[in-house]
Amino acid sequence: MTERRDATTEGKDAMAERRPLRADAQRNRARLLEVAERVFAAKGTSASTEEIAREAGVGVGTVFRHFPTKEALLEAVFVCRLRRLADEADALTSSTDPGTAFFTFFTGVVEQSATKNALAEAGIDVQRVSSEVRAHVVRALGSLLAGAQEAGAVRDDIGVPELLALLIGASRTAEYASEDRAVQARALAIVLDGLRR
Amino acid sequence: MTERRDATTEGKDAMAERRPLRADAQRNRARLLEVAERVFAAKGTSASTEEIAREAGVGVGTVFRHFPTKEALLEAVFVCRLRRLADEADALTSSTDPGTAFFTFFTGVVEQSATKNALAEAGIDVQRVSSEVRAHVVRALGSLLAGAQEAGAVRDDIGVPELLALLIGASRTAEYASEDRAVQARALAIVLDGLRR
DNA sequence: GTAGAATCGGAGTGATCACTCCGTTAAGAA
DNA sequence: TTCTTAACGGAGTGATCACTCCGATTCTAC
To answer: Where are the domains of chain B?
Structure first.
């Protein structure tokens, strides 16, 4: 259904061929993404488009002009999150201690996802996301993981797919245990210990 | 809202004070639970009540007579699953090898939840479920875990809360990786290794 | 400033869904 | 078999939601 209007955040639209958005339109789009992330995290993906529009101080029409479908909005929010994730991984990759970098990253992602919503929620999937972003995520996680493995801090028998699956599961674990920080910490420790050699 | 009609499956209703259900009513109730579990697992909890009624060969009215609310139906399905889980744990507790029993149980639950839906889905929570069932689950898991810990197969610094959180997270991991069995197995192995001493 | 296009706002639309109501059916006691 | 009544079926109801449409409002190039 959504074939042409597939561009997700602002990347391609703004830089290439298509004329840049008007100033107010850019502002609205950014604000919508911001608000949508917060609202979806707080009330789940069933939060209504109208609520997001109201919260962002725009009309529903504006939401649907920027994101032709609710699913497109969800995907855009998800892509944003993925981008940030990949950036964090990138920033840690050059660390002097790859093992610590890896575990810091893992812990950080899980802790963020415990309050914010789970990493991959409601049918949106790293697989289905634009290949550019997916490639970025896979590359960044791959470097971080490889570094930690070479340093002997992480076992050798896993790759990026296993890492992604564990990140998602551990996020769910943390979300479930979010009422008791001690439980949360001990549960996470088990996954981290399992990752070590 | 749902104060009085809170009985979930058939336990209390049938055995105590209230007159037993008519034969057809009992059949319908059981069939509804069965169908609902399958449908919710396949299409998520947003599957409509009408679809479940149709699949079960009854009218919507019948669904709402047995389960006054969609949420009540979801809870009943969930309680069923929890009961089975506790029974499985009970059956394994008397095993001669408590360590193997524990890991068999964990693996079994996770594998079931990978195709069926996640253990605790969509806002229904072990905490909110009738205390009788909750107690059963906690007792059964507690025995299994304690046995494995005494046998030296599982680390000592976790309890039932951590175990529940990990079961839920590992189920999510398995669900995410359900397309690639090898990934699924390696991810699960990491959690299991983390649980060992 | 002003023209003209891009963008906005929000009432309106059709679809879907949980839940109700009541006429009909059939279980089960006598 | 008959009578009572528990249980059933499914059309109907109101609410909600994603999405559309177009007149009103900016923005921006000149």
So the answer is: 11-72, 77-195
